[in-house]
């Protein structure tokens, strides 16, 4: 058997650490579920099972996946450091992750989509708004995951670097969203991007979800080219801001060029904005995420 399967040496107590991490991860997911239903007039079970509110399910799924993405960066981080240390580290990073992801969603709702009542529209079954809401949560989690993997240890310096860096990069994500909103108004006789989402423009929501996820993925690759300095608070923040800005603009240019070639002969702007073509929107989503993954892979290899 040893000839057929070559295994790396595993810690003898790995199963115990795995059980601790999975148990605490389930606890954090229950907290996320509780938070999702805290401000609702109906329970989560009633909203999903009785009311069949698909939009609420999409939004909640985005929250669950965002937490799993963050927790996935923490699992196994403290193997060999003691069971108590592993449990405390998992809870600390998990709770910080929940707070920061929720903060990212709040900022997206109140600053970028400031003309929309996101929670109210989701309660009214707006699938388009729910998709963008879920994408914003997942995008925040992708960025946060890269920062958790970027720092060393679980001390106060690491927490400061994560919180400050995440806030700055989140601002970058919000500014890029504004650029897409300006583009929509320019191409549609000054029509409102947020107004289109309010009216249930699903194709636009799919396309914009790809924009959010693509930006988050390519900005997260900044962790491969930046050095972490525990006490370098300013350099950590400016590094993420400058590199993240360059990568975001590079993604915008690369995706635009790829659309010109791959969707040649097709007025993809008109198809999505005016004809609500979800198929074309899915292609644009794929290009945004795909180009970001390619750049991410190149930078990871160089690192």
Are there runs of 5+ residues with pLDDT below 50, and where? none
Q: Kindly report the average pLDDT value.
A: 85
Number of strands: 0
The total domain count is 1
In whole angstroms, the N-to-C terminal distance is 35 Å
Task: Please state roughly what percent of the residues sit in beta strands, choosing from under 5%, 5-15%, 15-25%, 25-35%, 35-45% or over 45%.
Answer: under 5%
* Percent in helix: over 70%
Give the biggest beta sheet.
none
DSSP helical segment count? 12
Radius of gyration: 21 Å
Main structural class = mainly alpha
Molecular shape: globular
Order of SSEs: HHHHHHHHHHHH
Can you describe what's shown?
The chain has 303 residues and is an all-alpha fold. It has one domain. It has twelve helices and no strands. The mean pLDDT is 85.
Features:
303 residues, 76% helix, 0% strand
Task: Spell out the blueprint of helices and strands.
Elements: H1 14-38, H2 44-50, H3 54-72, H4 83-112, H5 118-123, H6 127-150, H7 156-187, H8 193-198, H9 202-220, H10 233-262, H11 268-273, H12 278-302
Q: Care to give the gist of this entry?
A:
The chain is an all-alpha fold. Helix content is 76%, strand content 0%.
């Amino acid at each position: 058997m040893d000839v057929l399967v070559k295994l790396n040496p595993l810690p003898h107590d790995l199963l115990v650490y795995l059980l601790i991490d999975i148990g605490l991860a389930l606890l954090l997911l229950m907290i996320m579920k509780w938070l999702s239903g805290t401000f609702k007039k109906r329970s989560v079970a009633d909203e999903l099972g009785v009311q069949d509110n698909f939009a609420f399910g999409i939004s909640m799924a985005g929250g669950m996946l965002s937490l799993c993405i963050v927790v996935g960066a923490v699992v196994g981080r403290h193997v060999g450091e003691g069971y108590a240390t592993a449990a405390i580290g998992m809870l600390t990073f998990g709770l910080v992750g929940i707070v920061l992801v929720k903060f990212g969603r709040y900022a997206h709702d109140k600053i970028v989509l400031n003309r929309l009542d996101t929670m109210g529209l989701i309660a009214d079954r707006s699938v388009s708004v729910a998709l963008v809401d879920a994408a914003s949560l997942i995008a925040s989690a992708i960025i946060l995951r890269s920062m958790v993997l970027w720092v060393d240890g679980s001390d106060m310096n690491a927490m400061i670097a994560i919180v400050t860096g995440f806030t700055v990069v989140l601002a970058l994500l919000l500014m890029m969203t504004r650029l897409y909103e300006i583009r929509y108004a320019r191409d549609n006789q000054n029509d409102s991007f947020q107004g289109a989402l309010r009216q249930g423009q699903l194709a636009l929501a799919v396309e914009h979800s790809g924009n959010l996820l693509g930006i988050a993925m390519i900005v997260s690759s900044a962790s491969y080219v930046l050095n972490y300095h525990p006490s370098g608070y300013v350099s950590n923040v400016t590094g993420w801001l400058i590199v993240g800005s360059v990568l975001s603009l590079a993604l915008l240019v690369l995706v635009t060029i790829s659309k010109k070639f791959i969707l040649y002969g097709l007025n993809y702007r008109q198809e999505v904005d005016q004809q609500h073509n979800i198929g074309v929107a899915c292609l644009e989503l794929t290009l945004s995420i795909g180009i970001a993954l390619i750049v991410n892979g190149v930078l990871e290899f160089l690192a």
